[in-house]
Each structure stands twice: as structure tokens, then as C-alpha cells.
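This week, look over our next protein:
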Amino acid sequence: MNKVLGLVVAIAAVAAGAWYFTRSPEMQPEATATTEAPASEPSAADTAAQAAADAAAAATQAAQAAGEAVNAAADAAAEAVNQAATEAAAAATEAANSAAAGASDAATAAVEGAGETMDSAKALTVESFDADKVIEMIDTSALAEESKAALKTVVEGARANPDLVSGAIEQVNAALGL
């Protein structure tokens, strides 16, 4: 932009200098009857001055148009950068929220799983034997149906006779791999 403005100033200075030299009386040659041009035709100096003025005006308009184009491009670039930054911030926020929710869900599941494991372990002790909980553990296991049926029969026998609880616990632990 500064180069264009400097060019406009230089052209204007050349035009002003041409106009000054063509109008000053000491620079004009003495007119003679044979070399004098008719008054109705413009002189070469006038034509050159007019051309320089026209060029300066065109250069000024071009500089203004270039300045406007540069400003428009800068505005468009700033808007694009702003839009990209806004979208990146939104994506980062969404990712952080998603990660936090996932971590919270995992922690909740771990706590619940730990609670269930403790309940299951507690059900498989002689002091806290819970036949219903043990049968539920057997039902949710990956054992074959025949093995599940046999273990449930042992647990039901231990429910009916507390002396069989210790043996039933050992068989369930062995079958479930605990």
C-alpha cells in the first residue's frame, strides 16, 4: 500500500513539475510569427500535463482500489481465522466433556463392580453364606447347564443343612475358579 501511495505522489510531482515549466514565462521560448501555433490547438506541454494529470488520477484510483482489496482480504482472513478458532474450541470442549463423562462412567462401573465382587465374596464365606446370592452367581457364570444344576443342588443342600456350607463353598469356588 505504501509503494502505491509513493507511486501516486511521484506521478503527481512529475505532473506538477511539467505544468510549472510549461507555464513559467522564462522557460517558454520567444514566440515568432513563423513558429507560433494557432491558439485553438493545445501545445505539446499542455497535452503532456493533461496526460500526467490523467495518469495521476488513474494511479490514485488504482491505489484506492488496491487498498480496498487489501482491507477486504484482511477482513476475510481474520473472519476465517476467527471461525476456525471457534470451531476448534468447540470441538476441544466437546472432546473434553466426552472424556470426562466416559471417565465418570468407568469409575461408577468400577465402584459398582467392586461392590458386587465384595457381596459375592461375602456370600461365599461360612459366616455370611447367602444361598440366593451364590445361586445367582452360578446362574450368571459361563458354566455348562449340567454343572450349574449340580452346583445349585449342593447350595440348596447347604441352605437346608448348615453343616454342609463349608463343603458347598469349596465346590462353588472350585467350579467358578475363585
Observations:
- Helices lie at 2-23, 44-123, 131-140, 145-160, 165-176.
